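SEVERITY: medium
COMPONENT: batch folding queue
REPORTER: lab tech (J.R.)

DESCRIPTION
The queue accepted two submissions in a row. Attaching both inputs and their returned structure tokens so the on-call engineer can compare them side by side.

ATTACHMENT 1
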Amino acid sequence: MPKKRTSKKSQRPVKSYVDSARELAQFVPSLRKYRNRKTLKPSEKSAITRKEKLLKGVTNLFPLTKKQARKFRGKTFAPGIRAIRLRNVEPEDKVIIHNNGDITIKEGKNIWLYWPLDRETVRSRKGMKEAGTLAFEKKFPIEIAADLAKKAFDKLEVQGVSLWTNAGRSDEVVRDLEAFLRWVSEKWQAGRYIRVSQYTGEITSSDPGIWVQGIAILLENAEFVKRRRALQKKTKKRQAKRKK
């Protein structure tokens, strides 16, 4: 019997690998050395391919500086990837990554403060309750005030709290402290977060210390606060005149 003809698998050109390395270098510093290469060893091609597969289809990645990466140790997207993922953030939103590990996101007229928590706090139901209490009492780091539209921090009220996960901000926003404490009590069982898979519908659980980074705090709109206070002043003046 005649042998079947087998077509040779077309080899990927070196330029394709180099272009990919150049594109991904902002997130993967180890690929920078390949950006201007003319030739690549098989092992070097494999290194680029592994990072391509890891980042394929991943959106909302934000690169970190070397200094910032030290603050985000254990919270980056993956080992060797010097970036964090911020889901629910649009390209037009202003993202300020602070060297102390906090993140401020200006989303239109809204301001989100991403407040990182240590692993033990995240794993503990009690620790998460205390973190929520501190958020609603506005006792987290005050040095962020300068980046919150240059307004005094104590003039902004907490409007809601969400989870900051390794994929970004959760869709669920809790609007008051009592609801947050109830939410944590219901879902944090023995340090584990119970959830329903969006793909299979199965109930699963995972250690929050692995995938929860901290909490995302929605601060009240500063312009709304101004208008509300102006209205309150007018109301007080009217009441004072009526008393006279």
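ATTACHMENT 2
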Amino acid sequence: MAKKDFKFLKTVYLGDLNIFKSAYFASYFIWQGMAREEFFKIVINNYNAFMKKRIKLITIEATMKFKGIAQLYDDIEITVQPKDVTFTTVDLNFTYLNKTTNKIIGEGTQRIGFTNFRDVIIPLPSELLKGGMDYLEDSWKKKAFQIYDKLNILKK
């Protein structure tokens, strides 16, 4: 089965711009966070119940490679692709497509993990893994199943 693609659409507004009237570099990180949060909102079946567990998302590392510019009112399509699933982390890759120019203007990554309300590192939440499985490439699906099969998390 082919993986699903998750796409987040962001329009560039005045608050996203620098003095030179192009998107400020930090805006790309803000958009990355917005795309990530929307991805989790869609992937986690009952997001309200999940939030009541007081699980915290921790960004361990984030990168951004700039390849082009975005200007006022450009529509930016950010594709989120989960990769490199481990017991406690998942990497997300972000591709920024300027829909106005049809050019890739950036690529970014985030390594994320989770803690409980006491700030103790926990395994990836089963809700995230279950809901996100359709977005993984087959090689990462296999790895994710191997990791969580040991704990019987996916069978619950």
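NOTES FROM REPORTER
The first strand starts at residue 6 and ends at 11.
No errors were logged for either attachment.
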